[in-house]
Each structure stands twice: as C-alpha cells, then as structure tokens.
Amino acid sequence: MHEHDVEARRVASQAPEAPAPRADEAPDLGLFRVLRDDGSADPETDPALAPHVLLRAYREMKRVRLIDTRMMLLQRQGRVHFAGECRGQEATSIATGLVLERDDWVFPALRESAIMLVRGFPLRAYIAQYFGNAGDVLKGRQMPSHMSGRAVNQVAWSSCMATQLPHAVGAAWAAKMRKDKAVVVGFVGDGGTSEPDFHNALNFAGVFKVPCVLVCQNNHWAISVPSARQTASATFAVKGRAYGVPSVRVDGNDVLALHRVVGDAVARARSGGGPTFIESVTYRMGAHSSSDDPTRYRSQEEVDMWAQRDPIARLRRHLVQRGLLDEAEEAAMEEGLMAEISAAIQEVEALGPPARETLFDDVYAELPWHLAEQRAEVLSSPPFATGGPESPPKPPGVASGRGH
Predict the structure, then answer these.
(1) Mean pLDDT in residue range 23-43
(2) What local confidence, expressed as pLDDT, does residue 356 receive?
(3) Looking at the domain assignment, is residue 86 inside a domain?
(4) Where is the Dehydrogenase E1 component domain positioned along the sequence (predicted)?
(5) 124 Cβ contact partners less than 8 Å away, ≥ 6 residues apart
C-alpha cells in the first residue's frame, strides 16, 4: 500500500468532528445539531416538530432501510441486476421530502430516491424500477436505483457524477423566469464536488440568485476515495463562499437538524432570497453499490464508530425519551412495513417486460411517419417466446447463457 493511502486511511478512521466554531458564528465551518447523544434535543436549535411529523420521519427512514436491505438481497439472488443502498444516510432524503411542497422539483444523486416515496410516489412503481418491467414508469430504460417520476417532480440522475446540479440550477432559473414559487433541490456526493459541473452550478446559482438548494451528502467516501484525499478545504460547505452562496454544515445523521436547515433554505429560496449550499455530514455504512466491496479500502472499526451515530437509532432514542414510541409500537410498525414491501415485491416481480410498442413512446410529441411504419411492423409480428423454440436463432459464435 502506498504511503498516501496509509495516511488517507488513518485520517478517514479518525473521529470526524474536531472542535469547530459555533454553527451560528460560522455556519459553513461549524456543525448544526439538534439531537444530543442521549436522545434529548437542544432547546436552542430544536425545530419543535409535531409528534406526528417525528413519527412519520421515523417510519419513512425505517421503510427505506428495509427496502434497501431487501433489494441488496434480491441482487445477490440474481433477481435484480443492481442496487445502491443509502444505509446510514436516510435522514437527509427523508427530511428533504418532508419540507418540500408539491410543485417543488428534486434532482437526486444515488442515495436520495426515497424522497419520491415521502412525496407520495407509489411503492409498487418504485420497486418496479429495480426490475425495469411493465410496472416501471420509466419503461425499463434506466438502470436500477436511478428512479424518477413526473408525478412527484423528481428527475433521473446520471451515473456521471454531478451532472444533475446544472440541471437543477437551470430548472430553478426557469422557475424564476416564470415567476412561480417552485423551489429546486439538487444533490451531489462529496466526490462530485471535484467535478466541473459542481462549480458551474454554484457559480450560476450565486450570480443569478436562483431559487435552489444544493445539498452535498458528505458520506466520507467517493467509492474508495476518502474525503481527506478529495479536498484540502476545511469543510465542503466553505466552498460556497467563493460563489457568494450562503452555506451551512449540518449533522447529516440528525433528522431534526436537517429538517430545520433544509426547511429554512427552502423557505429562503421560495421567498426570493436565492440559493443555499448545504453540507450534510453523514456516513455510508454499506457498500457504494452492489458492485462494491468496501472492506478493501476502509476498516471495520470506522464503520462501527459511525454505526453508533445511526440516524434511525438516534431518532428512536428521542422518540422513546418523549414517550412517543415503545417496543410494541415499533415492532408493529416494522411488521407492517415488511408486509407492505413483501407484497409489493411479489406483485411487481410477477409482471412481464414492458410492452414492445413502448419502444416508440416518449421520443416525439407526434410520431413521424417512418417510426409509425416501424411501430406497425413490430406489432404485426408475433413476439418471440423467451428461451423457447420460437426464440430467434443465435448468431454464429454467440454462446448460450446469461450475458455480463
């Protein structure tokens, strides 16, 4: 192992929160928190959320973790081809979904898909996107974990990092030009801040004061690159200073703190106050994706340390302390969620592939004559059976079996 890799591991394994300025004195250098380690809330920063909001936040975080666990299992069984879980990072997406209004837009990265569920996207259609079958509103055209849905104004992200940020800022610019009240939220990981699109987006947002909130989920690892090797800045949030964008650094495992910080930023954008850049300090407890083995680049001790800051466990302690949740209620909640998820998976997995004619959908507002002819020809031919005697013959040299 190279010397700089050893140093990177050493830095990444240290406790990430060194003494910092107060969040109200230097919000892009400090760390805004509400929940204390014992589950109590700091009265100076507590957003005083209603009990039903707190319980919903807990339920939503539990649901997305259970979904991620099942999808990773299905991927290992070969039933879906890819999965990217957000274990340990649920608080950011759930808090964001709770503060947005119906007409707001979301441009996610890999680990924010659950915002769709918080905003009312059907679980069945959400899970169908993993399978890419007839239940998928994207008609099987995106790889799994790249969810989107027009019904909830969430736009698919690209696996090319940070490309969604200029899109988010552009959509916010359009909202400003149209004088509507929609706010746009765009997400990026800590690794994506090294991409040109990150800088283009912040510069445009700062110059034109568009109604957007840009959120960096700093989970400390851009696949195998630790944040210590990603930037020399004191924080990621401080990068906003160069673009004139007010920036805040928040505890990304504290859903109450996130609710307040993201909520304030959304309200500011909606009132004409311009953009905000938020660094959500969190940790990816699982693998980068089902294609990754994190044991090759980080220690179990580091993972165990962050597991003590699990956002779900922290909110649970708060709810129990306030008398809003007990063991029986939590067991019933989890049982209900597991039944809901299992039923959706069973229903979706039984569906066939997207209909052949959908190949021609969503290409033109009005199908041109040559595509109309092709569509008619496709529909006039009987479909091939999958794997049976009616399947088309394989070209010479093509082996049987599943491809890569």
Answers:
(1) 92
(2) 92
(3) yes
(4) 59-352
(5) 135, 344, 347, 348
Q: Which residue has the tokens 């959509």?
A: 171
Q: What residue numbers bound the domain in which 368 lies?
A: 356-382
| φ/ψ (deg, to 5) at 105 | -120, 150
- Distance, CA of 48 to CA of 66 (rounded, Å): 27
pLDDT at residue 7 in the model: 47
What whole-number distance in Å separates Cα of residue 19 and Cα of residue 195?
29
Give the tens place of pLDDT for each residue, 121-139: 999 999 999 999 999 999 9
Residue numbers annotated as active site: 284, 288, 297
What's the CATH code of the domain at 287?
3.40.50.970
Q: Has residue 179 been placed in a domain?
A: yes
Helix (H) or strand (E) holding 124: helix 123-131
Q: What is the count of structural domains for the chain? A: 2
Tokens of 106: 């979301």
Burial class (CB in 10 A: 0-12, 13-18, 19+), 328: exposed
Pair 304, 362 in one domain:
no
Is residue 280 predicted with pLDDT exceeding 70?
A: yes
Secondary structure of residue 235 in the 3-state scheme = coil
Per the structure block, which two tokens stand in for 305?
């340390």
Residue 325 token pair: 């949740």
In angstroms, the CA 50 to CA 68 distance is 28
User: What values do phi and psi take at 133, rounded to 5?
Assistant: -105, -160
Q: Same domain, yes or no, for 133 and 187?
A: yes
Residues 52 and 101 grouped into a single domain: yes
Is residue 366 one of the residues assigned to a domain? yes
- On whether the CB atoms of residues 237 and 278 are closer than 8 A, the answer is yes
Residue whose structure tokens are 């807990």: 58
Question: 404 in a domain, yes or no?
Answer: no
Contact criterion met (CB below 8 Å) for 169 and 206: no
DSSP for 291-327, please give it: T--GGGTS-HHHHHHHHTT-HHHHHHHHHHHTTS--H
pLDDT at 300 over 80: yes
* In a shared domain, residues 312 and 368: no
Please name the amino acid found at residue 277: F
